[in-house]
Design goal:
The chain is α/β, with parallel strands linked by helices. It is built from 11 helices and 12 strands.
Amino acid sequence: MEIHHLKQLITISQCGSINSASQKLYISQPSLNNIVKRCEQELGFTVFMRTPKGVKLTENGKKFVEIAQNIIAEYKKIEALSSSDKMVSISFIYLSYILEALLEFQEQGLLLSNLLRRTEPLETISDVICQKVRIGILPIYQLDLNGFIEKIKQYNLQYLMLFEAVQIYAVVSKTHPLANKKSISISETLKYPLTYYTAVPKKSVLSNIYDSKFSLKVQNRDELFLVLKNNKYFSLLTLTSNSKNPEFCYIPIIDNEFKMNVCAVFLSDTTLTKQEIKLIEFLKNTIHFI
């Protein structure tokens, strides 16, 4: 059993419902159910009794949660004494320019912890809530920003804007029907099938306006470029000074609500360490959007 499992069980006890706790932790209910079962098997006793309204603690469960809360409190003290001021733990979704910058940060002798997780948006937020990592980095479309801010407030998180209103481009092959456009609106792209990363959340603006029957999700940049070579597909991407592929055309999207923001999220009571501040400044100074 790991520290984050203790935190998850404590959250269930506070919510009185595995369903409510799963929403708060950004974990699916079946996954959280399995975590409870595994932990109870490891402990050798039942922590939660199921009721029509949810769950409640058994007598052993009450003692366990009290001890677990003390362990978490002591663990936080240990973290404060450890090398946390020198090490940075990060969870981020698939953004090649973030990964490249993090590796460059490390190559310069600046330390990242072994907790460098590439995830999907809900996992990134869950990692921060469960304190698997201290910082999550994820992109948010301008149109999704207000909803994102409201959502993270509900989970006792705060955010720091790393990059604001970054230009988005429609990326197409040189023989695509849109290839000769100097600029384009989102409405002009709707009749073409979109390809995008699986990391884009289901409730993203992309998922809402493009027909999922014709859209194609891919895992990484190599797959994305392979699909784009098919003349009918296009994608929506940000562009850095290092990421432009000469095989494709990059057409600026003129709709302001489709600008991209890149945010760092962390718990509301988190005070960033010197090393974390140094990393954030490094990202801002190293990544150059076009």
